[in-house]
């Protein structure tokens, strides 16, 4: 609702029972015949949005502006600004504003903007993404994966990585040297339609460092309705193979992910895929 103040580590924030009840009540007011009950909630989400500090006039959080601000800092050894507020969906406009204001102060001209540069994997017309998907499905089929399975894996991968799906599918690596070379079905991450190769892509191309990075913030598996410990363990095992995690930490990390998703999102992870 963005109206509840929060103090503390944002990583510990979670939706309270009162917030969930409030939202269910709001839904029931709009859809009385089909409204879900508390027992129907399989996952909830809460994030902390940075807002400018509350002023002395006692305004509630709802009355505080949601806009971002650039605040010059006085008395610093080098020119410095603080960014106050902001959110992911406005990150590019914030970057543009920051470049314009700060470079002008430094007497440096702005020579480029991200307005004409798509985000990685994006294609406005989706034509390139679709062609990559079709080509990838054919290649995977030729390498032994059943065509329908290949199409499902490609569809899931392109939904996450766009036209970069080719790399996330592992098709830019030497296929014969991969562990799954003799078993085409093992290219799929247990309990999903995603490729195992996507784990390496997340580490090498998207700077994932921890198991949580891959599960929650790259492959978005925390939103998978049937997420299982088998899937989490498969990701961890691949990270071990890639040298990104010590083998003796796998079970502890898998258990920690289960606890975190349960405590923060109210999400139950299945034991088996």
Shape: globular
Averaged pLDDT: 87
End-to-end separation in angstroms reads: 34 Å
Strand order of the largest sheet: 1-2
Q: Number of DSSP strands? A: 2
Radius of gyration: 23 Å
Number of helices: 9
Sheet-strand content, in percent, reads under 5%
**What is the helical fraction, as a range of percent?**
40-55%
Largest sheet composition? 2 strands, antiparallel
Q: Which regions are unreliable across 5 or more consecutive residues at pLDDT < 50?
A: none
Question: Helix and strand string, N-terminal first?
Answer: HEEHHHHHHHH
Could you explain how this protein is built, in words?
The chain has helices at 17-30, 91-106, 127-142, 147-161, 165-168, 197-205, 211-218, 229-241, 250-265, and strands at residues 69-72, 81-84. It has a two-stranded antiparallel sheet with strand order 1-2. It is an all-alpha fold and 273 residues long. 41% of the residues lie in helices and 3% in strands. The chain starts with 16 loop residues before the first helix and ends in an 8-residue tail after the last helix. A hairpin with an 8-residue loop joins strand 1 (69-72) and strand 2. Helix 3 (127-142) runs antiparallel to helix 4 and helix 8 crosses helix 9 (250-265). The protein is globular, with a radius of gyration of 23 Å.
